[in-house]
């Protein structure tokens, strides 16, 4: 305290500021969506938890802050970084937050909060569903859905019937979802192992022309297992257990500024069981040529990149035309998934291709499911499948700081070890 020089300094005022901040944060947290409408009960480790003796410990620590180092309110668990001499009111002003980045367009609100750092609120248009940018060829029409590609004879909930419906054909006659609305363990394990340990036999190579590499040799595309959900022409209803991703986001998610050099990230505010659908990757539907042109125009200007290639079934049917080789770009417009960061090999989400409106597999939805139980406030991550040594890939690599023991970016791993 003897280092605080302001003549107006008063312990009472500091404590009052501290209490104001605490109350304000309590108010913010109670505005957030809570799954079961029960009173908000916060756990230890939760940024808003502050009970009994912990409260004293944090205020003690705030008062003891060292002169040159930022002082951290330990009880607020990385919530605020306070330089000595700043009051709690200043801190309150420096926390950036938005209550709902979706602007009411999703089933749930998704908040954004910057507890550390000083990054600007990201500029992009929130959209809950993919939309064609310009040239992408997607033929969505009921006439193109053959009888064997839907279950028009069903009613109610397909999962409650004795035999799986026609839509389960894609998943070897078994539904990919359980009655509880989770991905089945078998489907999850198979998808995770194909992605983590891809075997050469799981790759297809474009013979003549690779839409991704353009005039270079194809490096191969991993063939993935698809889910086929029931849809419009099916006889079942909207609550059918084989319609999970089309019902939208139900998890309590939050965008936050990460501590590492990754920019913004996404975390869950509730525990999520293994196999939970979190959200899909939404963006503008572009042809790879359009993506290439965008990259040329914006080359080097953006720190982060947001496209994903929809190549989970390239080459299995026929050579794709240029306007059929598609990707999703969430740079300018997208949903919460545009903030999910990459983690090498042991990410807690997996991206799974899901067919909904069209039997063609050159367009599909990319849906994220948890690979294991995820605890509240853990950051959500998925493996972008990046080859960190491939510098001319249209999806630009970055210096990875995922922190995984099996990080594939050896250069990134070396420099973060050196920093330590
Ligand atoms: C789809 S965005 C993810 C959201 C991004 N962090 C943001 O602030 O908007 C992908 C970008 O995030 C950054 N990023 C994602 N995962 C990362 C990681 N493991 N290490 C470093 N940067 C990462 C990279 O800049 C990458 O181009």
Automatic annotation (TrEMBL):
Pre-SET domain sequence ranges:
154-248
Domain of life of the organism in this record?
Eukaryota
- Domain named SET is located at 251-385
**What's in the keyword line of the UniProt record?**
Chromosome, Metal-binding, Methyltransferase, Nucleus, S-adenosyl-L-methionine, Transferase, Zinc
Provide any one GO MF term from the record: histone methyltransferase activity
Instruction: Provide the GO biological process annotations.
Output: methylation
* SUPFAM superfamilies, alphabetized: SET domain
Q: Does the keyword Zinc apply?
A: yes
**Could you confirm whether the keyword Transferase appears in this record?**
yes
Show the InterPro entries listed in the entry: Post-SET_dom, Pre-SET_dom, SET_dom, SET_dom_sf, SUVR4/1/2
Per UniProt, subcellular location reads as: Chromosome; Nucleus
Residues in domain Post-SET? 396-412
According to its UniProt record, where is this protein mainly located? nucleus
One cellular component (GO) term of this entry: nucleus
Query: Which Pfam families does the UniProt record give?
Result: Pre-SET, SET
Q: What is this protein called?
A: SET domain-containing protein
The organism encoding this protein is Jatropha curcas (Barbados nut)
């Amino acid at each position: 305290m003897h280092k605080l020089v302001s003549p107006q300094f008063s312990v009472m005022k500091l404590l009052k500021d501290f209490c104001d901040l605490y109350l304000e944060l309590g108010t913010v947290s109670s505005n957030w969506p809570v799954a079961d409408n029960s009173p908000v009960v916060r756990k230890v480790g939760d940024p808003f938890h502050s009970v009994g003796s912990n409260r004293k410990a944090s205020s003690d620590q705030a008062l003891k802050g060292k002169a040159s180092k930022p002082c951290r309110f330990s009880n607020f668990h990385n919530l605020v970084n306070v330089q000595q001499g700043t009051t709690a009111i200043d801190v309150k002003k420096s926390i950036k937050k938005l209550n709902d980045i979706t602007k009411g367009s999703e089933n749930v609100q998704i908040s954004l909060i910057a507890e550390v750092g000083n990054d600007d609120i990201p500029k992009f248009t929130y959209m809950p569903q993919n939309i064609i940018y310009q040239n992408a060829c997607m033929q969505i029409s009921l006439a193109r859905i053959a009888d064997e590609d839907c279950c028009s004879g069903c009613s109610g909930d397909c999962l409650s019937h004795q035999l799986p419906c026609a839509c389960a054909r894609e998943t070897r006659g078994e539904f990919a979802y359980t009655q509880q609305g989770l991905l089945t363990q078998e489907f999850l394990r198979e998808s995770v192992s194909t992605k983590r340990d891809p075997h050469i036999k799981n790759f297809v190579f474009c013979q003549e022309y690779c839409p991704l590499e353009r005039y270079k040799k194809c490096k191969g595309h991993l063939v993935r297992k698809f889910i086929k959900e029931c849809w419009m022409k099916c006889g079942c209803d909207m609550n059918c257990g084989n319609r999970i991703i089309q019902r939208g986001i139900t998890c309590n998610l939050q965008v936050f500024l990460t501590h590492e050099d990754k920019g913004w990230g996404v975390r869950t505010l509730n525990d999520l069981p293994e196999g939970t659908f979190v959200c899909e990757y939404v963006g503008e539907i572009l042809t790879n040529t359009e993506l290439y042109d965008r990259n040329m125009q914006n080359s080097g200007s953006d720190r982060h990149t947001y496209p994903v290639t929809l190549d989970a079934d390239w080459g299995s049917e026929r050579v794709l035309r240029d306007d059929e080789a598609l990707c999703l770009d969430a740079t300018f417009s997208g949903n919460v998934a545009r903030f999910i960061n990459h983690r090498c090999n042991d990410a807690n989400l997996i991206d799974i291709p899901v067919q909904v409106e069209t039997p063609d597999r050159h367009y599909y939805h990319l849906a994220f499911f948890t690979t294991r139980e995820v605890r509240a406030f853990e950051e959500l991550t998925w493996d972008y499948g990046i080859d960190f040594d491939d510098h001319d890939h249209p999806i630009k690599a970055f210096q990875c700081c995922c922190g995984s023991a099996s990080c594939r970016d050896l250069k990134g791993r070396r420099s973060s070890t050196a920093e330590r």
